[in-house]
Specification:
Elements (H helix, E strand, L loop, with lengths): L7 H5 L13 H19 L4 H13 L8 E3 L2 E6 L8 E5 L1 H4 L7 E5 H8 L3 E8 L6 E8 L5 E7 L4 E2 L5 E5 L2 E6 L2 E5 L15 E6 L8 E5 L6 E7 L6 E7 L5 E6 L5 E3 L7 E5 L2 E5 L12 E5 H5 L6 E4 L5 E8 L4 E7 L2 E10 L2 E7 L8 E7 L6 E8 L2 E9 L4 E6 L9 E9 L5 E9 L1 H4 L4 E4 L14 H6 L6 E5 L9 H5 L7 H16 L8 E6 L1 H12 L6 E5 L18 H4 L8 H7 L1 H4 L8 E7 L8 H12 L5 E5 L10 H19 L7
Parallel strand pairs: 32-33, 32-34, 34-35, 35-36, 36-37
Antiparallel strand pairs: 1-2, 2-3, 3-4, 5-6, 6-7, 7-8, 7-9, 10-11, 11-12, 12-13, 14-15, 15-16, 16-17, 18-19, 19-20, 20-21, 22-23, 23-24, 24-25, 26-27, 27-28, 28-29, 30-31, 31-33
Helix pairs in contact: 2-16, 3-16
């Protein structure tokens, strides 16, 4: 049976605002400038805006924040921004120094100085330090926050870029070390080198001193795939090369690349996540396999698996309330993170030769806290670092060694006044009877009565929203008397892959129904009223906000959508959108287009509806979710006579902000808007 394809004219016929998709078009940018000025007149001119922005900036720039690190060999590496270092510095220290209140840091790269010297708005995008020598790094820098980066080799001894080293121009590059003079690289080398999604299609073995265009191609994905990748495992005794491709956002293939160039595919389901670690092949299931359920974690003997042996150890089995949150290796152990009703538990698993793995709780983990593993040292030791926090509990950083006691290395101070605030978890009942958990942080409403409330959600791509200490929201919202709510709706990963898969494609409205059910439950519990209830979300969460605006406008007094996805008939033609077809469906497939048009907030807008006030925010430099989504939706709302505010930051990429100044400005805009509309401010009238 032949798939029916949709023509371009079918999805563009009723769209008068295609010109706003011209990211840097003169007319489009002039329109943006007008909208920004209108928004500034309403929000930035508010008497409370400047003080709020200053208080948020104070949090972001605070010198007593925890400097989280990543261990590479003998050093702990950190990237740091503050008022003095707007674009940030890359630095490192030793554990001995890090234990001190004021460690001595070795400055590696000052991004502010680099930006000034090169007259470029560089934004740090990370670095890959070579193992096991730890003498060179591949530094990634973004122009004003976009996903595309330039790559430069960096000498960690001289703290300078290597003049004749590995260097690549701007592209959505993937690159990693093989040895001192060779890397695996995927980048834009001309026609045919990128997928339709704009990511690398080819994996090349690039040798120092040669043009990347002439590097040997060792693997190539299809144009319709999302991307390809290559990886060298340098673990002593287990040196191996792997290549693979992402068929879509959730399916992939991984191959062992033998020295003679032949490929051996790892025979696991396409939707599983599989990787090699020393003698193990570790597989996370997204669908049932070998008699094990969706969400299970399995371990095989790698060499035996290649020979056809399918015997395995079950490292984790989910149940209706418990899901795998993540796992990390130390030298001899596996640290397992699980969630039960979105609360974390951590165990240590130890492999045994020829026998069952043993497991025990990780000692020293505080009760009733949100705990996550932030770093381990799998190449050398059984060291681990844990971040421990809660909605009203500032972060503390713990270091330990498996089997030994742990120590508190760093403690962040409180950033907002939590006096009188409480935390509670409730469950709403969605339209189909599903129990949906959510967290409420705020005053005791049995005593105070309903008040201004902000409901946040995401609901996609198996992303879980877990408890954390939100300094900015605390200052900008909770301290003013607001209540903050996080909804753990379907589409996320809070209950494993099944929770995500329940809202895929044409089933996406299940996520919308879940969020609406939480909104209704908040009103029923007396936490708020529809007039005092706001909602916010970004990216895929921006699609969720568009759904609330067009499907459930009566439930909300205000909605904020940041870097949102809103035109579901053309998302696949804009920037990285083609990579999300597995999540939403294919607009070019006649079978999918009807449900996508029904999902599309841009197409659901009407003149006769009564919508809550809405703020749309995006970035000109967002090269992931096209700014045209927010621009066109704002234009259509204006055309239909509905109130809308729009703000487009010229930089910042998909994060919406490239430095703390931009981040503070954006936060102040959002919270000023919400307080005007929900907090009884006369300015909203």
């Amino acid at each position: 049976m032949t798939e029916s394809r949709v023509t371009e004219t079918e999805t563009e016929a009723d769209d008068p605002y295609l010109w706003l998709e011209e990211v840097s078009g003169e007319a489009a940018l002039a329109w943006v400038a007008e909208r920004n000025a209108e928004t500034a007149a309403v929000l930035a001119a508010d008497p409370g805006f400047a003080p709020l922005k200053a208080r948020v900036r104070e949090v972001l720039d605070a010198s007593d924040r925890i400097p989280y690190t990543v261990r590479r060999g003998p050093h702990l590496y950190n990237f740091w921004r503050d008022a003095e270092h707007v674009r940030g510095v890359w630095r490192r220290t030793t554990l001995e120094q890090y234990r001190k209140d004021a460690p001595e840091w070795e400055l590696l790269l000052d991004v502010d100085a680099l930006a000034a010297a090169e007259d470029e708005k560089w934004v740090w995008d990370g670095a890959r330090v070579r193992y096991p020598e730890h003498d060179r790094a591949l530094v990634r820098l973004s122009r004003d926050g976009g996903d595309a980066v330039v790559v430069r080799e960096f000498d960690l001894a001289t703290r300078t870029f290597v003049e004749d080293g590995f260097r690549l121009p701007e592209a959505k590059t993937r690159i990693g070390w093989i040895d001192a003079d060779t890397v695996f690289v995927g980048t834009d080398t001309g026609p045919g080198s990128l997928t339709d999604s704009g990511y690398p299609r080819q994996v090349r073995r690039w040798r120092r001193g040669t043009p990347v265009e002439q590097a040997e191609t060792v693997y190539e994905a299809d144009r319709a795939d999302v991307s390809s990748w290559g990886h060298h495992d340098a673990t002593p005794g287990y040196e191996r090369d792997f290549v693979g491709r992402s068929l879509d956002f959730f399916r992939s293939e991984t191959h062992l690349l033998r020295p003679d160039g032949t490929l051996v595919r790892l025979d696991v389901p396409e939707d599983a996540v599989a990787y090699a670690h020393r003698r193990h092949l570790v597989v996370t299931l997204k669908s049932p396999w070998l008699g094990q359920p969706t969400g299970a974690l399995l371990a095989f003997d790698f060499d035996a698996f290649l020979d056809g042996d399918r015997s395995f150890e079950v490292l984790f089995t989910p149940d209706a309330r418990t899901a795998l949150a993540g796992h990390s290796w130390t030298r001899h152990h596996l640290v397992l993170e699980t969630m039960r009703d979105v609360s974390t538990r951590i165990e240590v698993l130890t492999p045994a030769d020829g026998g069952a793995w043993t497991r025990e709780p990780l000692v020293g983990v505080p009760e009733l806290s949100a705990v996550s593993v932030v770093d381990t040292d799998p190449d050398v030791s059984d060291e681990y670092f844990l971040d421990v926090s809660g909605f009203l509990q500032p972060s503390s950083l713990h270091r330990g060694v498996v089997g030994d006691t742990s120590e508190v290395l760093k403690q962040a101070p409180a950033r907002f006044d939590a006096t009188g605030l409480t935390v509670a978890q409730h469950f709403a009942t969605s339209a189909d009877g599903t129990r949906v958990p959510y967290f409420v942080i705020g005053p005791d409403h049995t005593a105070t009565g309903p008040g201004p409330t902000l409901l946040y959600g995401y609901g996609g791509f198996e992303v879980s929203l877990t408890p954390y200490y939100a300094s900015v929201s605390g200052r900008a919202w909770l301290e003013r008397g607001g209540t903050y709510v996080i909804a753990n709706i379907r589409g996320g990963g809070e209950y494993g892959p099944g929770w995500h898969q329940a809202a895929l494609g044409a089933e996406r409205p299940r996520a919308f129904e879940d969020f609406a059910a939480v909104a209704e439950d908040l009103v029923a519990r007396g936490v708020t009223t529809p007039e005092m209830l706001g909602a916010s979300g970004g990216s895929n969460g921006g699609l969720l906000m568009g759904a609330m605006l067009t499907r459930y406008p009566h439930l909300f007094g205000a909605i904020v959508a940041q870097v949102p996805l809103l035109d579901m008939t053309r998302f696949h033609k804009l920037l990285a959108g083609a990579s999300w077809i597995a999540e939403y469906g294919d607009p070019d497939d006649a079978a999918d287009l009807p449900h996508l048009r029904d999902l599309s907030p841009y197409h659901r807008l009407t003149a006769d509806a009564v919508y809550p006030h809405v703020l749309l925010m995006t970035s000109t430099r967002d090269d992931r979710v096209h700014p045209g989504h927010a621009r066109k939706t704002a234009a259509r709302l204006r055309e239909l006579g509905h109130p809308v505010l729009f703000h487009e930051n010229t930089g910042g990429g998909h994060a919406g902000a490239g430095d703390n100044e931009q981040a503070a400005h954006n936060s102040a805009l959002v919270h000023t808007f919400l307080w005007q509309r929900l907090g009884g401010d006369p300015a909203k009238e």
